[in-house]
Amino acid sequence: MARRDSRQPRRAVTVGVCPCGTGLPYGDCCGRLHSGEAQAPTAEALMRSRYAAFAVGDPDYLLHSWHSSTRPARLRLDPGQRWTGLEVVATEQGGLFDSTGTVQFRAHYRDGTGAGSMTERSRFVREDGRWVYLDVDRP
């Protein structure tokens, strides 16, 4: 597996617990994926790592984990938005032996206008053997 550079995320994690909600230390959880030391084994793990990348301010990881057919050329994160919690609502497929998966989640944030949340049903696929985010499932 090609290793990403070992740079630190742009926004320092102020607590040792990973923002993705597993309760594990960041360095033992999504930090390993963000640094390129490991790959997400499931679609849900990738979704959690992408949420954590938003929380720690790592747009490079977000682009790296985006499907090549839907990935934007650039991604600018809002520095005034702080992600404060993640709830996984449902998962369909996306396991170790699947090639597609869907994860519905609710992400909580704070910004200049106060607290809010967003709910999304994201689709994931394997590209070159690794899980990547494809798009939002719009019924």
Description of the structure:
Pfam families: SEC-C, YchJ_M-like. Belongs to the UPF0225 family. InterPro entries: NTF2-like_dom_sf, SEC_C_motif, YchJ-like, YchJ-like_M. The chain has 139 residues and is α+β, with helices and mostly antiparallel strands. It has one domain (26-136): Nuclear Transport Factor 2, Chain: A (Roll), CATH 3.10.450.50. It contains three helices and four strands. It has helices at residues 30-34, 43-56, 59-64, and strands at 82-93, 100-111, 114-127, 130-136. Strands 1-2-3-4 form a four-stranded antiparallel beta sheet, covered by helices on one side. β3 (114-127) and β4 (130-136) form a beta hairpin. The protein starts with 29 loop residues before the first helix and ends with a strand.
Measured by DSSP, the beta-strand proportion falls in 25-35%
Distance between the termini: 35 Å
Order of helices and strands: HHHEEEE
**Poorly predicted runs of 5 or more residues:** 1-15
Shape: globular
Strands in their spatial order, largest beta sheet: 1-2-3-4
**CATH architecture classification:** Roll
Q: What class, by secondary structure content?
A: alpha+beta
CATH class designation = Alpha Beta
Count of DSSP E strands?
4
Number of helices: 3
Q: Radius of gyration, rounded?
A: 14 Å
- How confident is the prediction overall: mean pLDDT? 90
What percent of the residues sit in helical stretches (DSSP H or I)?
10-25%
Q: What's the CATH topology name?
A: Nuclear Transport Factor 2, Chain: A
Largest sheet: 4 strands, antiparallel
Number of domains: 1
InterPro entries: NTF2-like_dom_sf (IPR032710), SEC_C_motif (IPR004027), YchJ-like (IPR023006), YchJ-like_M (IPR048469)
Protein name: UPF0225 protein ADL17_16265
Pfam family, one: YchJ_M-like
Family: Belongs to the UPF0225 family.
